[in-house]
Design brief:
Number of helices: 10
Largest sheet: none
Shape: flat
Number of domains: 2
Distance between the termini: 20 Å
Mean pLDDT: 91
Radius of gyration: 22 Å
Structural class: mainly alpha
Low-confidence stretches: 156-160, 318-322
């Protein structure tokens, strides 16, 4: 049995992965603009737009067709990244990750087409929003897997490396944020963004009367914001105890983004869902998820448990004699 080839840092492939992740965040912002401006059906056909590749960019067409153009660009970047990775990456897991990202972006495009073909059905629109967040996480994972930090192993690992519990806290925070974004997508696409029109109270109370589904979903989203705040604050505490600035700094960014997200949520309600705060709320939510996910990836890489010598030897096919 031969030793697997070692990964080699490719700066330009890493930069392409990071650029694709940044473009994906911008794409999520543009998608939020489509919803915020009510332009989801401004172009009634798909994959063409009014039977053209490039329709007049006026009114809602500017947002909807612009979203399609941005999605096509991200799809092109992902295709280049997947092919490049497949041809030059020694690690099978990273190659599979790149193909998974490509398949996900293709599925995302098809879901986008279905939202138009079936006139914005809530389940399909919510699935489209959630898959966008999943794709964002895949590209972040690909960018991190191709980074110098990941390939270098993150430096020395202490024998008892995660006593602070960063890995569990980061994974929990990521899961809570994703669930909160899913709840927000349900609220947005069922038109319940102003089901509770005041803030910080809810219909003048701490707990509103649940007289319709929109109120229940909206209130659940507000409660979810508190859970996200608690989970990310806990993550920051655990990261601080790890004494690893790479984890604590990224966790600090996540907490700052959560605070900004709460302010944007309040502004969305108090402004009657004005386009700017509503769309920024969508994008910052994705940024919170991406940051928590990055902390999770770093925690599992930098605070990993040391592998016993015998199992490591078996994995690479080297005999160990007593």
């Amino acid at each position: 049995m031969t030793v697997p080839p070692a990964a080699v840092f490719s700066p330009w492939r890493h930069r392409l992965a990071a650029f694709t992740a940044a473009c994906t965040l911008l794409l999520i912002f543009i998608g939020g603009l489509v919803t915020s401006t009510g332009s989801g059906l401004a172009v009634p056909d798909w994959p063409l737009s009014y039977g053209m590749l490039m329709p007049p960019m006026v009114g809602g067409v500017f947002y909807e067709h612009g979203h399609r153009m941005a999605a096509t660009f991200v799809g092109l970047l992902t295709t280049i990244l997947a092919v490049w990775t497949a041809r030059s990456e020694a690690r099978a897991g990273v190659r599979r990750l790149a193909w998974a990202a490509l398949l996900t972006v293709i599925a995302q495009g098809l879901l986008g087409g279905l939202t138009v073909k079936f006139l914005l059905p809530t389940p399909v629109s919510v699935a489209h929003a959630c898959l966008a967040q999943s794709f964002f996480c895949l590209v972040i994972a690909l960018a991190y897997a191709t980074s110098r930090e990941f390939i270098g192993g993150g430096g020395a690992v202490a024998p008892d490396d995660d006593r602070a519990g960063v890995r569990a806290a980061a994974a929990l925070a990521t899961g809570v944020v994703f669930a909160q974004l899913a709840a927000g997508a349900v609220m947005r696409h069922m038109g319940a963004g102003l089901a509770i029109p005041d803030f910080p109270l809810a219909a003048g109370r701490l707990i509103p009367p649940f007289d319709n589904a929109g109120v229940a979903v909206h209130f659940a989203h507000r409660v979810g914001a508190l859970l996200v705040l608690a989970a990310v604050a806990r993550l920051l505490v655990r990261a601080g105890r790890s004494r690893d600035p790479r984890l604590s700094r990224t966790s600090s960014v996540a907490l700052v983004l959560v605070m900004a997200q709460i302010v944007l949520g309040a502004a969305t309600v108090l402004s009657g869902r004005a386009v700017v705060p509503t769309t920024a709320h969508v994008a910052v939510g994705a940024a919170v998820l991406g940051t928590c996910w990055l902390v999770t990836l770093r925690a599992f890489r930098l605070r990993r448990r040391p592998e016993p010598l015998a199992s490591a030897a078996r994995r690479i096919g080297v005999a160990v004699t007593p």
